[in-house]
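## Example record

The block below lists the input lines for one assembly entry, exactly as stored, with component labels intact.
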Amino acid sequence: MKYVVVRPRGIYVFNERLEKEDFIKVELEESEIIDILSGKLPERVKKYIKEDYVFLGQKFEGYNSDFDRDKIRKALDIISMEEEGIDQSKFYIATKMGIAKSITRDQLIIQIIMLLDDINKITNLMVERFREIYNLYLPEVSQMIEDHEKFLKSVIGKRREDLMKEFKIDTTMGGELKDKDVEIINKIGEKILDLYKLRDTLKDYVEELMNEVCPNLSKVATPTIGARLIALAGGLRELAILPSSTIQVLGAEKALFKHLTKGTPPPKHGVIFNHPLIQKLPRKQRGAMARTLASKIAIAAKVDAFTPGKLVYESLIKELEERFNELKQEKK
Amino acid sequence: MKLIPLKENPKIFRDDKWRLYTKNLVKGQSVYGEKLIEYKGEEYREWIANRSKLAAAIKKKIGKIPIEEGDKVLYLGIAAGTTASHISDIIGWKGLIYGIDVAPRILIELMKSIGKRKNIIPILADASKPDLYLSIVPKVDLVYQDIAQPHQVKILINNVDLFLKNKGYVFFAVKARSIDVSKDPRLIFDEVGKELEEYGFKIVNKVRLEPYHKDHMMFLLQK
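Predicted structure tokens for the full assembly:
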């Protein structure tokens, strides 16, 4: 039996008393460094590994390993004394490649859902300002239409006289503006409407991405809530390894920490609060529903993360609806 | 302005207002927006205590700063490389930092600054699985750990056990809030101290990092 340790410049071979017997020179390439870091033995190294070789402290599938700390330390002592300088640029490139490899489609979901939140905030700010500006021109319409998007669509590109007729306004409190002023006001409004359009496009896109990346989660949690959960957990895999009790309160961190540090009542739900099955129930029953929903979401996320392609959402939704009806009955 | 080398470590400098500096290894390059200054024909980088826990620990008089030219350092949780860049200045071209981090996103920031800093080896790996980088990291003179994880003590011990030379030193930044948010930080630091002593560490010194970093403590340990 011999002990071996793979290093960037080659393979160290030790006898059973941990005396160095051999050094087989194999300069690892960047991609092979990534292989080793993810527990895969590069092909070029494999051919030097004989049957009675045991890896010290390293684990590669199909090979024997020994994790005895004393032995590892002893070998590392010898290696550290002998090893020549290390080529930083190789690791620089390997890490760059490793970062590139780590990019997954759920990260795109995270960024898009966060951008959606940003756009909502930005458009709200801009519309409020737009209404202030429009009030200088024709405040009555702004007062009549509360919905921002509808308001924009009703006024943009239209002349004041026409609007006054349309909305039956006899006298306006708006001031006299020049043509140039009105032109600019219209331009601002158009840009905001463009942002609303972008928001709608991104909403559809998130839905598409969710159905592609995690169909079960998307169906059980709804695409938007599912995407938010992924964002809060930091990824689909990360969400999949969370217990359902954590999923239940994701997005309610403030209330949760207040509960932990100050002893206030614990939060019942985080972002899953917006789920239709919770919204449709009276307050009292929402906690119970949130618990069930979180547990089904946890299952859906696990399936999506670890057995991609498998579809289980139908039975999960059925169970959710059963629970929902049960809770509804209880009320009466 | 005058720069004075610290008596604890002549590679670290201070000015009359007790701002810290290290001599810039890569001339003209500022890593995280810190000021570069010229003094007697050399370029120095300001080491900002609000950004770096080690700088804060030095300002809070941790006493010993056992980082020397040519040292090999294992840096667990290197992140964007703010602190690491100053250690890199101190150990110079003959030294080497093995910088481990599990988060690809933050390593993108690190890569930007270490293109020319050839004494930092970036490794995308999980510090709680040292067997995966056993093929790269050798025995080191110093371990620096700044990982916000509940099991940070266990991670440290696992790594030190394998990679730190006997009598080697450890800088260990502990964030109380990532161990337990609901407990009093003082209790957590006491428990951490006990765990470290149980393993056999000698606690050389420990300092709270307020006001630069809230609820943090820096332990200086010797194996």
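The interface with chain A takes residues 96, 104, 107-108, 111, 114-115, 118-125, 131-136, 138-139, 161-163, 181-182 of chain B (CB under 8 Å). The longest helix of chain B spans residues 185-199.
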